[in-house]
Amino acid sequence: MEDLSTASSSHLHKMEQTSVCKDCSVPMTTASLAGGTSDLISWQDVRLIRLVIAFLITVLQLVLGIPGNVLSALVFYRQGLRERINLCLFALALTDLVVSLYYALLTMEEQLRELFLLDAWLVKIHFVACVGFLWASQFLSAVIASERCFCVVSPFHAKRLLKTSTMAAIIVVCSSLILCGFCAAVPGRFSATSIVDPVTNTSKTKFSVTRYYLDNQKVMDILDVFVYATALPSIFFIIIVVTTAVVAVKLQSALAWRNSVATSETTQVSKDVSTSKARLSSKEVAVTRMLIGTSLVFIVCAIPNLCGQLASFIVPDLSYTGKFYNLYSLMWAVIGLFRSINSSLNFVVYYVMSSKFRVTLYTLLGCWCKGHKSRPDVSCNVVSSDMTKSLA
Q1: What is the pLDDT of residues 45-91, one digit of tens each?
Q2: 190 in Cβ contact with 26 (< 8 Å)
Q3: Burial of 314 (0-12, 13-18, 19+ CB in 10 A)
Q4: Among 100, 91, 102, 95, CA closest to 66
Q5: Which positions ≥6 away from 186 have C-beta within 8 Å?
Q6: Phi, psi (rounded to 5 degrees) for 121
Q7: What is the pTM of this model?
Q8: Which of 87, 137, 268, 377 suits a disulfide with 95, CB 3.0-4.6 Å?
């Protein structure tokens, strides 16, 4: 599986098109690409590895990505969207859910083409706009990292300036702009037509550039290649790396201060005050640790994409029209795997690092079990006593 919005490479060398969309759309290439003898890896090896990766992505999304994001959204909704961080994580779960659904359908469609030689391009043609949610997810990850950094560095100003309504407006407006810009730059770039082969009496899908793209080529190329393929991922990556580093340093300093206060010999009143402060800060510490975990997952999964983009700029032949076409196809398959992991793994981070998330999840699952199995020992309205603790 290649980049989210690229076509299956097993069919690309059979097409006779003339242009390439760098990162976001169905690539148009020539008929001679797959057979280059100077490539570093054979097409047969690439095809086998791609099938394995597509299978892994399909299993990952069906087992963890889709159900995990659904459960995450339900948990944060249950905890209350009036809390700013819950609203952000709820929005992130929804966008990752769309990405996971698209990945699952896309990889299953590709496996149908590869294994059964079906001319199946339904998802690629009609749902390519869903790729825009990938950048919306990256934006939300950057917003969450920035929000947590602001809260740790200046909690008073964060509480006064970052209202939940303000955060909701930022999420809706900026995500809408990202999605609208992507829809303007990519889905209308190519058109697909079905051509019947009179010899075999079978139909094949052919792709071609549209008049809309030719009339707006410069603007669309800038949006596609420079904005969505390069600028936005780089900006989001830098923001998350910097804010995560700042938060980690500040968190370590805060924990060191708490330990020194807790172990110092003071009066009983001072001890009570310090204990109260420690308890009050335990929730923020737990939430911050959890969000550092999600940021680290994002950073690790974003590195292959940035390295691939950099390699494409440095090595011109590492492209759909270059002599390293097979390697380029394999590179985007690996990038797609890491993007799929990023959209699926947050649920695991939440579950492992947040006791409040686990308690709410158990409550939701208990309600479901009660409704389907008539279990009188499970209460849907009474929250476990663990949730009354200031744990995240």
Answers
A1: 999 999 999 999 999 999 999 999 999 999 999 999 999 999 999 99
A2: yes
A3: exposed
A4: 100
A5: 5, 21, 24, 25, 128, 129, 131, 132, 220, 224, 228
A6: -135, 25
A7: 0.81
A8: 137
